């Protein structure tokens, strides 16, 4: 069986991590692709769980060694997805979850077109995004401004994604995300056609 990729993008602060952490608690067979980043670790984040927090030099060395499936500079920091663990999980038939930006999506889509189901998540409006970033209290006012500016550009890419979720209500958007995962599990491409037909005839 071949695995699949669930790829989520959306403005920083819209609620992607909140939705995903609930998904991981409730769904089996999902593997989170832990990105590497050069940004500073936030309160509550764990190295090797939320990200691999590495130096700029280590990141650039990884680029030289072609270790990244994709990488991008987002909000003035490097972010990248390591290829090796993703391949291993796909070979095991798992769903690999990416939380990456629109630039990363464009590259990942070239390499794993048939494996990716993509979802763009956002807030009802920019004002609400600002409120959430301020409430989260992890970024300086300057960083928040930078993230808001970036968000406007990211919104231009909505139509490139398979699904669109407005996270105005966590219960509602979580139900939407869960339906997408269920639909992924029901894809006909998941089955081994020969085995399915042989078993069907034998019984
Ligand atoms: P992201 O991973 O997209 O950067 P987070 O998951 O860290 O965003 O969420 C940013 C903030 O918004 C957090 O404080 C989170 O608790 C809050 N949040 C997430 N979803 C909602 C929602 N539907 N309504 C209100 N606040 C939310
Ligand atoms: P944050 O700093 O809020 O955790 O993430 C900032 C942005 O970087 C988000 O849009 C997130 O989706 C994106 N991001 C996280 N990991 C990766 C990655 O490996 N590659 C790319 N291209 N973007 C990433």
From TrEMBL:
Sequence intervals crossing the membrane: none
Superkingdom as given in the UniProt entry: Bacteria
Compartments, as annotated in UniProt: Cytoplasm
Organism: Campylobacter californiensis
HAMAP family noted in UniProt: Guanylate_kinase (MF_00328)
Molecular functions per Gene Ontology: ATP binding; GMP kinase activity
Cellular component terms per the entry's GO annotation: cytosol
Keyword annotations: ATP-binding, Cytoplasm, Kinase, Nucleotide-binding, Transferase
Lineage of origin: Bacteria, Pseudomonadati, Campylobacterota, Epsilonproteobacteria, Campylobacterales
Name of this protein: Guanylate kinase
Function noted in UniProt: Essential for recycling GMP and indirectly, cGMP.
